[in-house]
Amino acid sequence: METSIVGVGVGITDRFRSVVEDKAARIEHLAPRAQRVDIKVTHRAYHNGRMEDETVELTLTGKGPLVRAEATDADKFAALDMAVDKLCEQLRRAKDKRVDARNHPRGAKFEKGSGELSGIDLQPASLDVMRAVATGEIPIITGNEDEEGYTPVVIRTKEFDPEWMPVEEAVDRMELVGHDFFLFIDARTDHPSVVYRRKGWDYGVISLTAQSAPAAVA
Fold first, then answer.
1. Half-sphere exposure (CA, 13 Å, Cβ side) for 204?
2. pLDDT at residue 31 in the model
3. pLDDT in tens, 68-79
4. What is the CATH number of the domain that holds 166?
5. 120 and 93 belong to one structural domain
6. pLDDT for the residue 146
7. Are 183 and 159 in contact (CB under 8 A)?
8. CA distance to 139, 147, 178, per residue, from 65 (Å)
9. What pLDDT, on a 0 to 100 scale, did the predictor assign at position 20?
10. CA–CA separation, 166 vs 184, rounded Å?
């Protein structure tokens, strides 16, 4: 398995590269079909340089979807350890789900008339939850540190191309990326949807009734 290390605002020492190679062997043991792991180390200095930390991001590529994990600590070696632990846990969870799927085949059924799902551990979100998601307002801080009312809380935004898939695949993708939720377009209904983790192996799904526009065909 190939490894690639990039430092942003920080140098990558031979010692760090050596530790990464040891960690890569552990990852490869859990994901023998993985082809490459990319490691990004980012150094951040906060207001007036009084606080600093290192964020380590791991991206595992191979056959199938990407698997990502990240961790932050004052020491980049500690951040690396935590990120690798997260990545390995995600790989173990995905493996357990595959074994469970073989032993207990999924027979999910979707009733278009009632909108009910059966044969899978998913529960539709309540009306109150859907209303809260639709009407919630989250402020995004865009001012600089010298402005009145500055807050160190930063809300990151990301944009992705829409992907059509069934709910079951969205749950698997969520487990692999290690998030508590996953956005997608439900292939059965064409509705923008999100699956989210509940307790244990239970999951929930929220869908918007407005249909998404299909991808343009060149």
1. 13
2. 84
3. 888 999 899 999
4. 3.30.505.50
5. no
6. 54
7. no
8. 32, 42, 12
9. 92
10. 9
Whether residues 87 and 130 fall in one domain:
no
Bridge pairing between strands 192-197 and 203-207: antiparallel
C-beta of residue 76 within 8 angstroms of C-beta of residue 10: yes
Domain that holds residue 124: 111-207
Per residue, the 3-state secondary structure of the chain, as one string, reads CEEEEEEECCCCCHHHHHHHHHHHHHHHHHCCCEEEEEEEEEEEECHHHCCEEEEEEEEEEECCCCEEEEEEECCHHHHHHHHHHHHHHHHHHHHHHHHHHHHCCCCCEECCCCCCEECCCEEECCHHHHHHHHHCCCCCCCCCCCCCCCCCCCCCCCCCCCCEECHHHHHHHHHHHCCCEEEEEECCCCCEEEEEECCCCCEEEEECCCCCCCCCCC
Number of neighbouring beta carbons within 10 Å of residue 130:
15
Q: Residue 118 has which token pair? A: 């059966």
